[in-house]
Amino acid sequence: MKKLIPLFSLLFLFLLACETNTVEESVTLDNAINLNKKTPSNHSFMVISKSETLTKDLEKSVSKLGKVTSTIPEIGIIVVESDDPDFENKVTKLVDVRSIVPDLTVNWLEPVKFDPMANPFSIGSDEPFFPYLWGMDAIDAPEAWNAGYTGKGVRIAILDSGIDAGHPDLAPNLNTELSMSFVPGEDWAVQPGYYFNHGTHVAGTIAAADNEFGVIGVAPNAEIVAIKVLSEFSGSGAFSGINAGIIYAANINADVINMSLGATLDKNGKLYDEEGNFVEKIPSKYIQEIVHAQQRAINYAYKKGVTIITSAGNDAMNGDGNGSTIVMPADLNNVVTVSATAPFEWAYNQSTNLDEPASYTNIGRSLIDIAAPGGDFDSPDDDIWYYDMVMSTIPGGWSWSAGTSMASPHVAGVAALIIGKNGGSMDPHDVEKQLFNTADKIDTNGKSLFYGKGRVNAYRAVTE
Length: 464
What we know:
Layout: E1 21-25, E2 27-28, E3 44-49, H1 56-63, E4 67-72, E5 77-81, H2 87-92, E6 97-102, E7 105-107, E8 110-115, H3 134-138, H4 141-146, E9 155-160, E10 180-181, H5 198-207, E11 223-228, E12 236-238, H6 239-251, E13 256-259, E14 263-266, E15 270-272, E16 278-281, H7 284-303, E17 307-311, E18 325-328, E19 336-342, E20 356-357, E21 370-373, E22 390-394, E23 397-402, H8 404-421, H9 428-437, H10 458-463
Parallel strand pairs: 1-23, 2-14, 9-11, 9-13, 10-11, 13-17, 17-19, 19-21
Antiparallel strand pairs: 1-8, 3-5, 3-6, 4-5, 7-12, 14-18, 15-16, 19-20, 22-23
């Protein structure tokens, strides 16, 4: 049995000093909403207009009742602050208002585990850490590169917690002029240092450059844009910020959006604090309207020609028949929702099955569209368990992580390969059809509980 040679003797410009491993997971509203009544965020609202676009008259009327902090005119949303206890009633009376809801701030990313840290010859072969990228082998990415497809001419918007702008694996493909932050007080470029950052890890899997350095992404010649919608410090983000980021990505002509983020909402409106203690019950209509607003944003981007990829979530939940919850944005229309696969003790045997369902992944025929490598951490071997995770870029180096957050970027990269093959522009419906038709059917020819239409295959996607 072959055992993987540890990489800790290797030195590079960026050091893997402490081999940090993480497991990222989507978080339920039950333990993620900021509801401290003393904080200004509790007086922030989203006003949703009856029209899907915003009129100046409505904005002017709302501004007389509260402080307008931002607008998303493309989908008819005004973000406004007010301390007036009767503010909601006053706004609801405006003739052009569909609804007004709290602009909830949710912790979309919560690291739940930290631990000290078979491919053909291809353009990836000269990347020093390429031998550890079992996910590229699983989806036949090297074969796609050898066929001439690397995502050139395709723009991918990464809605996440920012990106390390100076990382040598990312800088060659990062559009710094278009990168933007929708998190108040935070720049899109993350702080310097050596630590785990979710957005940077996701970016490396999508499009780490072909530069004989570090790792390589699924679409190594695609352009990436950092759109920060989550705090790099807490993983939290307001729904209005997520929606604004989606609209921005569409307006800068992104071809693909990757959203490795998620929150599970209780349709009955029960809200809990970060410790899981019940705080209050809000009208269920608020949840319905929050969902409606985000679906507006998704629909806007989809109609603008953007293929939208998102993670399924890491609650080990079966979405079928689970009518009391909705996973955002995975349960929405016009998105491709990705579950996670993984090997088991791959470090000991590189010929092992790479398509085991990850222990944490959400599943369900009603939820999952397609599967991709997300990694896992269920090996009992203390020496090699993290090799079953996904290796990618972090500020100051590289590290392993596991989650559907790591699966989604594999699919986003393949979507970029498909679009690049077709001239750099493609209807998202056609991209989705190609992803699904060329996926490897793991356990059924129909739609699988674990894999959806199958595990994504990069080579088949660009050759069939």
